[in-house]
Amino acid sequence: MRELVHIQAGQCGNQIGAKFWEVISDEHGIDPTGTYHGDSDLQLERINVYFNEATGGRYVPRAILMDLEPGTMDSVRAGPFGQLFRPDNFVFGQTGAGNNWAKGHYTEGAELIDSVLDVVRKEAEGGRVTIKKKRKKTKKSVILHVLMLFLCFLFYFRIFVLFSYFLCYFRDFLFYFRRLLFYFRDTIENNRKFKETKRNNIIKTEMKGNH
């Protein structure tokens, strides 16, 4: 009885999933090519919970691997058990989200939803799957792209406005700071002149007293 369909999403999910299938395959006596080389009948018990049996007695993981960029998929394929997975169950985009949640949720990720659901449905039914490389952009997708661009524009416009305010306040700060420096300079200069004048008056008074 088939019970589990594993869905591995993103770089972290696929790295954990790849290690998981290494452990499960070792427990059931499955080598990296999907061939059984175990030494106990217990290893074959309920093996169909995790694997489908393909032609030639080869066992294939019941797993869907998905990501928004092909790099993670290439790493899984190049791994020790990379040839174990069914090629049709790799679902991926081409550009990635670049750690941008909105892009992953509304644009690149949204374009893969139909393909992922189709693969999950076919895998649950036990049938083979043909993956569409990439959907054509629908009207909804175009609207989401425009909305995302508009939100990005608002974000950068707000930053520009805040930076403009900062420049204005900084300019005013420099202006008043300069006036303060001039005030201190004039105060020091006037104080010096006052002391010099007072000293000259004292000298003149002493000279008159001597005469």
Mean pLDDT: 82
Class from secondary-structure proportions: mainly alpha
The number of strands is: 5
CATH architecture of the domain at 6-136: 3-Layer(aba) Sandwich
| Shape, principal axes of CA atoms | elongated
How much β-strand is present in the residues?
Answer: 5-15%
Strand order in the sheet with the most strands? 1-4-5
User: What is the rounded distance between the termini?
Assistant: 130 Å
Q: Helical element count?
A: 4
Report the uncertain regions: 128-136
Q: What profile does the largest beta sheet have?
A: 3 strands, parallel
Percentage of residues in helical conformation:
55-70%
CATH class designation of the domain at 6-136: Alpha Beta
Helix and strand run: EHEEEHEHH
CATH fold annotation of the domain at 6-136: Rossmann fold
* Rg: 38 Å
In CATH terms, the superfamily of the domain at 6-136 is Tubulin/FtsZ, GTPase domain
